[in-house]
Amino acid sequence: MKKNRSTCVFNFFKDSTCPHRKIFQIVSFCVMLAAVFQPATLVAYDSPNEVNFESRNFQTQTTEQQEIRKLKPGETIERQAQANGIHLYQIALEAETAVEITIGKRDIFFETLALTPESNQQSNSWKSISPEKELGRVVAGSGETLVEPLVLVAEKVGNYIILTRFPADGTYSFSCSAPRPATERDRKYAAANKILSEMRRASENREPLGKMRAKAEERAAIYRSFDDKKSLALSLNDVALTYSNNAEWGWAAKHNKDALELFRLLNSVQDITRTLWLLGRASQETGDYQTAINSYHEILSFSRSRLNKTEEAVALHQLGVVHHLLADEQRARDFYEQSLLVKKTITTTDAAALDGQAITLINLGNLLRGVGANEKVIDSFGPRTASDRRKALDYYQQALDIARRIKKSFPNTRVNREGFNLLQIGNTLKELGNYSEALVYLNQSLEGAKAAKATASQVWTLRSIGNLYVLKGEYQRSFEYFEQTIELLKAGAHNSDQAEYFNSIARDYYQAGETQKALDLYNEAFAISRAREQQVVSANSLFEIAQIERNLGNFNNARTRIEEAVNISESLRSKITAQELRTTYFSSVKRYYDFYVDLLMQAHKSQPEKGFDLLALQMSDKARSRSLLDLL
Description:
- This protein has 20 helices and ten strands.
- By secondary structure, it is of the alpha+beta class.
């Protein structure tokens, strides 16, 4: 499932590489949420948003000379803003002096930039500002979100420029301090503002934010050294984004938790909510489902107390997502249906609002098919029936109708899930055995993705077509599609889901008789997911490897791998405090224990003197006790 939950949603045909758009793949907060959370994988993330890095396109509409208003020391500015516009202010400063800009009340998202005196020479070209002319910037979310101060240090005498820019109509305010002799604190804060400028530019240029991690940590260290809890909390969330942008979810969650603790001390409800979205997504990815559920329930409570229907709908959707991932079918359906009901009460009929309904319809279809992210089958759902799949087609058709309505009514919107819907309809027809008809839909989806040069979208579809040919027994053709898919993945497409895709393709390779290729991909998936602390994915890779090793007669290798999978599952289970959720979680991983017991009993038949039967009994008792304890 950010980006204003209002405005930025995962786009099937336009790759969302900006961290904020990718933040919530089951459409999530950071991009109507975005990432932050890359389209809705196949359990779609839904989310409202407003993160420091939310990538907005500031496209100034005017081509005339901009009026530059003189800014008086100590003055407070309150103004109306027009969408995609800018306001310019000029302040005369002596060398080695500093002023501090403090953002006040506003009802829009906007940026404030400090520019050198040389920027006055830009004449009417304010659309693009060269990096050397930008001294620093701050980003202000709408409402009462916290904002760090913007400190301008004059290195020489001159008329410095303060520029504000905004993507929407609204009002904003800020105040400017009287000039003062520049202190060490002023210089450090100006350096922190400059780092934020560099990070924003990287985001706007679609550069990997992971490369900015050292800078982001330097900025946080500056605010920590002055015990500035507000600015430190904001910077910690930005550090977290440099990790989540690189799919390093464990470290992202750690920094989100640190930021959340500070925002709670500051009692900033909007920043607490925003951080809970980020923490919920990161926790989902690491398999810490308890923290994810707690985060979304807290958001749900906040949203209802503030009568925020959009946020309420998204929180309900995300709760459905977590239970979906746990194969808790009834609870997932309940939350999705509640979310859809709330979304239908929202009177706004813009593209994002309509797409929000489509996202939940998609997940209801996914639930019926028993699939999760990236069309991965969730084994613990059990077998699906033809009736389930036909019902899923109904949901996907409703979502497709909405996508085409959006395309017709909002031709310039970035919200376009039509190709994604075609993909899911094609996959469902494939599961029903209608290969020819499925291929028509999948090829339509692929053509659209290629036309838009959307590599992430191509990954989904190429992988699905390859799977279709495996099911038809045309293995050589399937390998051609898998090779293209792997090439795109290794080039960076779908970076956060790379390990899951490798697991999925490996399974097809094994079915096609390519055992070594399957093992190589499973091992690569394990290495990637372990490095990124995607523990659920790691455990699944190990389980699959263990099964292959057993079939090859490599008992020791199989035992080592399945023990690792069980240990990961035990660790994740220990983090869950709610007993009912523990039971649900254990049901989703019980097959690991069952396999381990079966493996030990097979070994006992050939080596009865080794005591493998006793080990099998102990493991069986352990699994049984887990179930009983969770029920008590």
